[in-house]
Amino acid sequence: MSNLQHPELPVAVIGAGPAGLAAAAQLRSREMSFLVIEAGSVAGAAVREWSHVRLFSPWSELIEPAAAELLETTGWTSPDRDAYPTGGTWADDYLRPLADALGDSVRFGTRVVGVAKRGRDRLVDSGREDETFTVHVETAAGEELISARAVIDASGTWSGPNPLGGDGLPALGERGAADRIAYRIPDFAEPGTRARYAGRHVVVAGTGASAKGALIGLVALAEEHPSTRVSWLVRRASVGAAFAGSDSDELAERGALGRRAEEAVASGPVRTLNSFRTASVDRASDGTLTLTSVDGQVLDGVDEVIALTGFRPDLSMLSEIRLDLDPVLEAPRQLAPLIDPNVHSCGSVEPHGAKVLAQPEVGFYLAGMKSYGRATSFLTLTGFEQTRSIVAEIAGDHESAARVELTLPETGVCGGSGAFDDAASGGCCGTTAGPELIPLSVRP
Ligand SMILES: Cc1cc2nc3c(=O)[nH]c(=O)nc-3n(C[C@H](O)[C@H](O)[C@H](O)COP(=O)(O)OP(=O)(O)OC[C@H]3O[C@@H](n4cnc5c(N)ncnc54)[C@H](O)[C@@H]3O)c2cc1C
Questions:
Q1: Which atom, in ligand 1's list, is nearest to the CA of 185?
Q2: CATH number of 3-159+311-402
């Protein structure tokens, strides 16, 4: 039996992205009442914003098993399991049909602005565990309260890109230069985007998969528009680690992305600036930007900046929920050491479920990308296993919740303690990697 009260109420799932809809499919398969609350007007609203990006995971790792079962009852045809979708096809061929199959249990155009225990702020102990959750939402029609027996927050981190500023706050002048700074990977096939960057001096900041994609795209653009210049800002002392492990990555497409980016950087019009942690952004009289690093390096004549330095979770809507998060990563405390790029080493990440994700607020869970806080190593498969286990726990099936039913792909890239600053120190693969780069590396 579930130890949660009020079985007559739905489980509220925040977000109709891959993780939220996976939770919903699990809830449906257990015949439990639920409501998915989605701010956007379509399923996978965040994924659609990177429609042009090809995933490095094949379809076989992007379809949740309970979701596939449900979809098969609707006459849905599974995509080729070995093919690699774009964000757009992932949303069109899987997330949308899945949301359709879930019917009225998915509410669009409904933004969660707060989660609390009914009538009790975070301070109040009395009767807390027995009380229902109240989810505060905003819709075009106004405000509303939704009661729930449990809450799974799968709202992702897409809305919270990190700033360019090296200390995690916007650099001096960064906000004022917003018209020339993009925080998401551009679609270089789109005419307006090409016009924006072609023939310009473009800065790319970051060393993760998105930054690599942007470098590849800009170098291709420079072939057609040779006056295009690219400056790549790397916070570490050397870029070597950014490409390490590409050859041994079990996610072949992720490894290939690394290799292509390395080639692009070597052959293209890319100037790399190491140890560049941006302190200020100034606008010259001709409108171009001058970037200055914390240690006084100056980069001027910049037309455009593409800052791809990771994401962070929006925890503001959870201010009245009792959370136990790691102070560094803002991920559940037990999960953090498994994914922290400062301490991570090969083999130390394990698939995890309800037990690791549990919070002091009984019945509240973070799942999907948001559960990783500021760590960027999240894989969709991990989210599927998280939601399977969380739903089992809410259902009272503790045995299933405790089981780990996942094998994650191995990667060649690992980090060691101090990986961020010490380019010479070795991780368990004999190399190090930056915070945006550390992927999961698991074989149970
Ligand atoms: C460019 C890119 C490529 C990636 N490629 C891969 C890959 O190849 N393989 C892989 O395994 N992983 C990949 N990932 C990582 C990860 O799997 C995806 O980010 C995935 O979309 C995360 O799913 P999610 O459901 O946790 O979050 P999201 O996809 O961000 O979904 C969250 C949903 O919540 C909604 N929402 C947000 N706030 C609220 C609110 N307050 N109220 C209501 N709704 C809200 C959003 O509109 C959105 O629909 C990639 C990520 C990115 C950004």
A1: 1
A2: 3.50.50.60
